[in-house]
Specification:
Oligomer: heterodimer
Structural class of chain B: alpha+beta
CATH architecture of the largest domain in chain A: 2-Layer Sandwich
Strand content of chain A: 15-25%
Helix content of chain A: 40-55%
Structural class of chain A: alpha+beta
Number of domains of chain B: 3
CATH architecture of the largest domain in chain B: Clam
CATH superfamily of the largest domain in chain B: Lipoprotein localisation LolA/LolB/LppX
Number of strands of chain A: 11
Largest sheet of chain B: 13 strands, antiparallel
Strand content of chain B: 25-35%
Order of helices and strands of chain A: HEEEHHEEHHHHHEHEEHHEEHHHHHE
Shape of chain B: globular
CATH class of the largest domain in chain A: Alpha Beta
Radius of gyration of chain B: 30 Å
């Protein structure tokens, strides 16, 4: 008690400082631009180099422009299963030796697969740059394909599906949303795939996939860190330059999702502890002019405790344990979806009404200049904090090259975001957040359905 | 949505080598001829390229300062990005939760940013979000943390906001209510997550009722009992500047950082720090607990035991030993379980070394059908690590990763701050950061063998399996695991000694009427495991059996129930720092809740009385109420009294579980632990005749410090059909406090109520 009385004048001063601190913050701090150079080798491989000498480490990233949306029917999950096969050895690298070799020099290596791309990366002490490049080139050129290793790895991937999806509360939520939202586009299927399709995959599929997609013209090599660019380019050319150009073009025949012509609703049951409600809308693709106001909308709805959905559903109405709404803006047109995990004693119907009301409010009332400014400041913060490490920088550069096919977007998008207006936000809300374009799901705890 | 090759953050590896030294080309060529896809037909067969010239690695500069009020400040400058982060640690994690109030520290942390004396919760959110900053709070067993990130032009604002939420939290009742509701719902969801369930049950097995053993966020029951006063008391006691460490990291100058810290915190007066020193965690005990989740498609597995705290001379060697078992650069578990057999997506082991104690744990998940095989392989790896010397190469691989990856761990200003904060928090020598690589490389296979022998006890592992029990229990038997407890998920109770809501019944363990759900569980056990089903609950049965023998040896349940009053005369010797002090005492007990001790101490008469919740004392200075801590101690000692304790346990009002036997002073003692909602665990050790030879429990000293108390009983004599120990000795933390020899005992003589009534 004594303490708080004595501290009171200080508190008042602090409160005054708050008011004045708020005034000068208008425009977001402009982050430094990424410096880089890009080269294309004769075999079609694109190479991005970006120096960062602050720590003696280097990040080497190879991104192949192939993901789960390239999978043919009956082979869902294959792009990711194939990613695992890239660790089963190549002509000069023993099976399972890739990661251990990198770690034996103090480096880290891993890989991941998304709907649109597959990335292999390593971060290691910078003087081992030749090793990383050499190993990546070796498996791009000469993958070993062994039946026993394939069968064993398939079991590993099935465990991964069980762990991530089937044995987690709400683990299947995303899978359910996409299954209901899409009819023909492969975004309908989760990247991890189905058990049946994983089981159906064959060793011939592995061989075909490597030959078709793991070719220089479908890959981007990004190197960020402490190196000499001339030496790095020489090394990349030495190891990757000798890989022959692909015999045939990389197929890009992905079916287009037709527009919806009426709201889709579904009520399903899962053995989850609390009900979940989803409200989703089809939206546009990454790089489309509407994508930027949609990103801003995600922040206004969900970034921070003052964001609209969080404040209204969690804080004010106490309807939800967790709630958010954001756009999954990727290479092909995807979804903007909001989810609420409903508190005990509250109804899914009330949660649905509250979520839809937030989308309607964006259309009818728009957002305030203050909210837009907040979202832009948050965007600037993310922009800065997501460019701290060599891995972060490489991720942005390679994403710009692979998905936008335009390396300048790695930095150029900052200004686009800063120029978004309240009118833009309202316009895109009116464009996409409409009933005939909406999917509503109620997922109820098993046995609770009326 | 993305899906990875190996689970992060554990980059699993195997049999790593430096290929340019050893050469792998020959074997590679042979295999390639038959296996490779011929995409690049003329690809050369070659060795990996040599590295370039290594570059110098230096730990970036940082400063540590201490303000006049004792607050420690760490400053790390970094000017690449225009941002500053402030990270504050308060030495007040769940380790400091009061007994029976698990979740206080976590609730305090979650409420810091939910309103101060001058800003509401919404106002704080509006302010930090508007400037594009971030504010979050958290807690773990050792500390509460508050992190603020702002752009450099908002540094002053960020510092003031940090100071406000740390110094002046409002703990508004409606916000407490909101947070509790959120936490309880989140716990409900977490209970459906096998990973969470396995982790909290594992902690409970390893640390018992030590705060590290209890869930950081509390349970719905403990949260229910936490009041606003509890939160304010935690804040008052621990949030003083000399108990805080603040790191300021990023795009500021050293002067700006220090001036900011001074302005926001410098005038806050130093306070007295009251740190709890909890009881020791129990010794490692073999215990296998299965949490039954019939809809699980995988079994989540944890295997491990108590080891060493972070500040310990063996930490480096032990951490490397555990990395050989399951960490980066080596990872036997990954090789055996994933690479060779495809049993799991990820397997790893790690040390979890905290301030007061530590443990190590191996974890994996596998499909239900391979649970037995996987557990067998894991436990075998513990045995191998303990029995066999590690290969030089395994150690050098683990060392190569640890030492070599050092530059990766100092990349961002926050990475640097993390390392400095860790050293400051755990009170490690600050030079340790700079000498890290040398210390890694200095570890030898002999060191690994020594620490593995010392700390790895494969016969005393805590094992948790969360999954579809009926489907994998037969596999466990085949794999050689015959003793385990099965707890249905909806009966899991972390605050109970048996870990389940159920109470044991002594009088008729098999046939007593039980609620329908329990009956189903019993039928399920029998149906699933056939005639040997009793073994599935063997540990429980052993506890019940031992309890019955102790009661019989004492004189039988009926005789115990007949005892209404006790009057005992004794010679008592107190051992104090100044010397010993002899006293004659007379004790009156009227069950259930009254007692009185009359003592003559140094010629003065002293009386202490507990009467159904009230406590008073009389000494030459007069009559007065006993102070609250003394009253609480009286109340606890009434609950610990052997006779009502045994009766309540027998009637199923208290939980009982068997502990491993202990060898002491040349005799083997069997042990049971008795606990209940209002009874902290009491351990009874029975001798060969099943007489209680020792009783152990945790208690607190008048100054609030927890201690482990033990009473040693001997010279049993029969009084009216009851065995009474005529000699007793009390020890606190192993130190003798008093010894007592009875000179006369009378049971069931009528006692006047006036004995217990406080005089006016």
């Amino acid at each position: 008690m004594r303490l708080s009385l004595r501290a009171a004048p200080v508190v008042l001063l602090a409160a005054a400082a708050v008011v004045s601190a708020l005034v000068p913050v208008q425009a977001a701090v402009r982050p430094p631009k990424l410096q880089y150079q890009m080269t294309t080798l004769p075999n079609g491989l694109r190479v991005i180099l970006s120096e960062d000498h602050s720590t003696p480490i280097v990040h080497v990233r190879v991104t192949y422009h192939v993901g789960s949306k390239n999978e043919p029917p009956g082979r869902t999950g294959f792009a990711h299963l194939f990613e695992h096969m890239m660790f089963k050895g190549s002509k000069n690298v023993e099976p399972e030796a890739h990661t251990s070799t990198i770690s034996s020099v103090g480096g880290r290596a891993n890989a991941y697969t998304t709907e649109d791309e597959t990335t292999f990366w390593q971060t290691l002490p910078s003087h081992y740059l030749p090793l990383a490049l050499w190993m990546e080139a070796d498996r791009m050129a000469t993958l070993r394909i062994d039946e026993d290793a394939f069968r064993r790895e398939r079991e590993v991937v099935k465990e991964e599906r069980r762990m991530r999806i089937e044995n987690q509360p709400y683990g299947r939520l995303q899978e359910m949303i996409y299954d209901h939202a899409f009819r023909v586009h492969p975004y309908k299927h989760p990247t991890i795939g189905s058990m049946a399709d994983l089981e159906a995959a064959t060793i011939d599929d592995v061989r075909d996939f490597h030959r078709t997609y793991y070719v220089p013209e479908n890959a981007v090599v990004t190197v960020v860190g402490d190196f000499d660019p001339a030496q790095a380019l020489q090394l990349v050319t030495q190891y990757f330059g000798r890989i022959p150009k692909a015999a045939r073009p990389v197929p890009r025949d992905i079916p287009t999702e037709p527009p919806m012509n009426g709201e889709r609703r579904a009520v399903v049951e899962e053995a989850w502890p609390l009900p979940a409600v989803v409200v989703a809308y089809h939206i546009t693709y990454d790089g489309h002019p509407d994508a930027y106001p949609l990103h801003i909308t995600s922040k206004i709805l969900s970034d921070g405790q003052s964001a609209r959905i969080r404040r209204e559903l969690i804080y004010n109405k106490r309807l939800a344990l967790s709630a958010f709404g954001s756009g999954n803006i990727i290479e092909d047109p995807n979804l903007f979806f909001a989810v609420a995990i409903v508190q005990p004693g509250q109804t899914p119907e009330a949660a649905e009404r509250a979520l839809i009301a937030e989308f309607e409010k964006l259309k009818t009332e728009g957002v305030t200049p203050q909210e837009l400014q907040r979202a832009q400041n948050q965007f600037a913060r993310d922009y800065i904090l997501s460019r701290e490490t060599v891995e972060d920088k490489a991720m942005h550069l390679s994403h710009a090259a692979v998905i936008h096919d335009d390396i300048t977007t790695a930095d150029g998008e900052f200004d686009i975001f800063m120029n978004v207006t309240v009118a833009d936000v309202q316009r895109v809300a009116r464009t996409y957040f409409n009933e005939q374009n909406r999917i509503v799901l109620h997922i109820l705890p098993r046995g609770s359905r009326r | 949505m993305s899906t990875s090759h190996v689970p992060t953050p554990n980059a699993h590896t195997r049999r790593s080598r430096l290929p340019w030294k050893l050469g792998v080309g020959v074997l590679g060529v042979a295999l390639w001829a038959s296996l490779a896809s011929a995409q690049a037909p003329n690809w050369p067969s070659e060795r990996p390229p040599r590295p370039l010239a290594p570059r110098e690695v230096k730990f970036p500069p940082y400063e540590t300062r201490t303000l006049a009020n004792g607050m420690q400040v760490v400053i790390v400058l970094h000017h690449e990005q225009p941002a500053v982060s402030m990270r504050l640690l308060v030495r007040a994690g769940s380790l400091q939760d009061p007994r029976g109030k698990a979740g206080v520290a976590s609730l305090v942390a979650s409420l810091l940013d939910q309103g101060t004396t001058t800003r509401g919760a919404q106002q704080i959110a509006d302010q930090i979000d508007f400037i594009g900053g971030a504010l979050n709070t958290g807690s773990n067993p050792d500390w509460i943390s508050v992190n603020v990130v702002v752009m450099k032009d908002s540094f002053d604002f960020g510092m003031d906001l940090l100071a406000d939420v740390v110094r002046n939290p409002a703990f508004a009742p409606e916000e407490i209510d909101r947070q509790k509701e959120q936490i309880v719902s989140a716990l409900q969801v977490n209970l459906d997550d096998p990973d969470y369930v396995a982790s909290v049950v594992f902690d409970r097995l390893v640390y018992g009722f030590h705060p590290y053993g209890l869930p950081n966020s509390g349970t719905p029951e403990t949260l229910d009992g936490i009041t606003r006063e509890d939160l304010q008391a935690h804040h008052r006691r621990h949030f003083v500047p000399n108990n805080l460490i603040l790191a300021i990291v990023g795009d500021v100058t050293s002067e700006e950082a220090l001036a900011g810290a001074e302005r926001a915190f410098g005038r806050w007066p130093r306070g007295e720090i009251v740190q709890a020193t909890p009881i020791d965690p129990p010794p490692p005990t073999r215990r296998v607990v299965i949490v039954d989740k019939p809809d699980a498609v995988q079994t989540e597995i944890r295997v491990g035991q108590v080891a060493i705290p972070r500040k310990h001379d063996d930490y480096m060697a032990f951490d490397l030993a555990v990395k050989i078992l399951g960490g980066e650069g080596a990872n036997r578990l990954h090789r055996v379980l994933r690479a060779e057999r495809g049993l799991t997506y990820g397997a790893s082991a790690e040390t979890d070394a905290r301030k007061e104690a530590g443990n190590f744990v191996a974890e994996t998940d596998t499909r239900t059908e391979t649970t037995g095989e996987t557990l067998r392989l894991m436990v075998d790896e513990f045995s191998r690590l303990q029995r066999q010397r590690v290969f030089e190469r395994e150690l050098s691989d683990a060392q190569a990763y640890q030492a070599g990856s050092f530059p990766l761990t100092i990349e961002t200003p926050n990475d640097i701050a993390t390392q400095v904060l860790r050293v400051v928090f755990y009170e490690l020598p600050v030079e340790e950061i700079g000498t890290f690589r040398e210390r890694v490389q200095a570890v030898t296979p002999d060191d690994i063998q020594r620490v593995a022998r010392q700390y790895v006890r494969p016969d005393r592992l805590s094992i948790v399996l969360v999954g579809n029990a009926s489907a994998f229990v037969p596999q466990l038997r085949q794999a050689g695991f015959s003793e385990f407890e099965i707890i249905p998920l909806d009966e899991l109770d972390l605050m109970s000694a048996t870990l389940r809501v159920q109470r044991l019944r002594v009088e008729a363990p098999a046939s007593a009427p039980v609620p329908a759900a329990r009956r189903d569980a019993a039928v399920f056990v029998r149906a699933a495991y056939g005639p040997t089903s009793a073994q599935a609950v063997q540990t429980d049965a052993r506890a019940v059996d031992l309890l019955r023998r102790i009661i019989d040896a004492k004189g039988g349940l009926d005789a115990l129930r007949r005892v209404r009053t006790v009057v005992a005369e004794a010679e008592t010797t107190f051992r104090m720092v100044q010397g010993t002090l002899a006293s004659a005492t007379r004790t009156y007990v009227a069950y259930p809740d009254k007692f009185r001790v009359d003592a003559t101490l140094d010629g003065a008469e002293v009386i202490q009385v507990f009467n159904a919740g009230q406590a008073w004392q009389r000494d030459p200075g007069g009559v007065r109420d006993a102070p609250a801590p003394l009253r609480d101690e009286f109340a606890s000692s009434v609950r610990r009294d052997t006779i009502p304790l045994l009766i309540a346990a027998a009637e199923g009002r208290l939980a009982v579980r068997a502990l491993p036997e202990e060898g002491r002073d040349g005799q083997v003692l069997e042990a049971i632990e008795i606990s209940g909602e209002r009874l902290d665990p009491v351990t009874l050790y029975a001798d060969a005749q099943h007489l209680i030879a020792r009783q152990a429990f945790a208690t607190t000293r008048p100054d609030g410090r927890p201690i482990r108390a033990e009473e040693i009983f001997s010279d049993y004599r029969r009084v009216d059909g009851i065995q009474v120990p005529f000699k007793a000795e009390l020890l606190h933390d192993g130190r003798p406090i008093l010894s007592r020899t009875l000179t006369g005992v009378t049971l069931n003589s009528p006692l006047d109520d006036g004995l217990f009534t406080r005089p006016e």
